[in-house]
Structure formats: structure tokens, C-alpha cells
Design goal:
The structure is a single chain. By secondary structure, this protein is mostly helical. β1 and β2 form a beta hairpin. The chain is elongated. About 25% of the residues are buried.
Length: about 325
Amino acid sequence: MFQASDTGTLTDRYVAEAVRHIPAARRGDVADELRATIADTVEARGPADPGAAEREVLTEMGDPIRLAAQYADRPPVLIGPGFYPTYIRLLAALLLSVLPVVIAVSAALDIVDGQGAARVIGGAAGAVLTVGVPMVAWLTVVFVLIERSGKRSAASGGAWTPDDLPDRRAQKKRGATAGAGMAWHGLLLALIVWQHTAQPYRTDAGTHLDVLDPGLWSGWIWPILAGLVGLVTLDAIRALRAPTRSLALWNIAAQAAFTLPMAWILYRREFFNPDFLSDVNGGWQAPDAFWTVVVLVVLAGGAREVVRRFREA
């Protein structure tokens, strides 16, 4: 009789990929049913090569994500069962990593300014609305676009086959790395927008100031924000699909949109708001060598990420 219980077999990987998209209470029964169905089908064909027969049966059964949708018995939704679990995990990771930082910074600045409890709480609530709501909206839009872009296996260039089954260990590692990247890039994006809309810094005279140069919003800040949005989007795709050269090429565009303008404004000392710096340090200027080092670090970091994406692909 054909057996497919050894860890790492195609059947195990197929079943694991299918049952992780259905309610936890049903996973054991569904896993047993799938294993039995696959084993019985392979055995009924009386193959001379059980391994080849196993691949043939799994290919006929099709994408395990679509099979899981049948077991889950869910109605049509904006984000389908193939992407919804990852969407929820990434959304939770972003909200739990980015929002607390923004809220803490907002509250700390209000406390330092001597604001009352009502103002501190109001500022924290404003930070949630300013950062949290757009974050949820943009992540949802990204996943809807991914969902509507085609079949999940489209990245492989053809119909689903057992070769598309994820390597569980590699997938978990890649998902953790992509999640960390989303959190970091999302935090940068949120802080840039928040410091401009909330103007959290307050002078002794009571004037609220941007931390970054307000003149950037007339030019260089937009490609930087576009680059960050692109990087967050690519991190989401990396968490869902195996890395490809096309994703690596898109990463070059996103990294260039973010890194090159950032390096340029740092080189020209146009990053921080002059009024903010004057109020904080009395007009003290960092030496040229400091800014040179910062620019080199930014460029080196962008180049390193480009190389890493191509090595993954």
C-alpha cells in the first residue's frame, strides 16, 4: 500500500498547505481525509513508480489553496482564502509594530510640552487615525490587487504542479524577513506622514513645527513616499510568493525611488526643518564628514537590499 506519512513528502506538503487555510477545528479531519484520498487513488492505479503516481494525482487535484476554499465553504470575499491568513498576519504585525511607536512618540512629546491628560489622549487618538486608518486601507488595496492579478501560481508561468508547493522552512524564514521589512518600511512611511500632518514638535513659544523640512513636500518627499509604498507592497508579495527575478527588478525601482532622493537631500543638508534644528540645538551644525558618512550608509543599505533580492531570486 502507498504510504505518504513521512515528513517532507509531496503529500505532506500538499496537505499542510491546504489545511492551514481552513478553520483549526476541522484541520485534523480534513488532513486525514486528504491523505486517505491521495493514498487510495495512487494505490488504485497500481503504479510501478509510486512517486511519479503521487505527483500525477496531486497535479490532478490542483492548487491546495483552491481545494481549501471548498472545505472552508466561504462565500466570495474581497480578499480570498488564499491570501486572507497572510493579510491578517501582516496587518497585525504592522499595527502592533508601527502604531505603538507613533503613539508613544506623540504622547512623549505632549508630556514634555506639559500638556494635560486630555491633550495626550487626544494626540494618541489622532495618531491612530492619521497612521492606522491609512495603513489598513493601503494594505487592503495591495492585497486586493494581488488577489485580482491572476492565479496564485501565475508567478511560475503555468498551471499548478506539485513543484509549486512551498518549502515550509524556507517559507517561514522568508515570511518572517518580509514581515520585518514591511514593519520597518511601514514605520518610516507612517512617521514621515505623521510628523507633517500632526506637527508633533512644539517650541517654547507654542509654535508647532515639522521635524523634516516642509519644503520637501513640494518635491523630493513624493518619490521617497512612492518608494516606501513600493517596498511595502513588494514585502507583502514576498511573504506570499517565492522570489523571482521580476520582483527583484521591481525592487530596484522601489529602492532607487526611495534611496537616491534620500541620499540627495541628506547630501544637501535639506532633510531636517531648519527651524526645528535651530530650536533644538541653537543652530549648531554637524560636520560635513558626518553627513558624508550618513549618505554612504544610505546608499550602501539600498545596494545591499538590491543584491539580497537578486540572491533570493
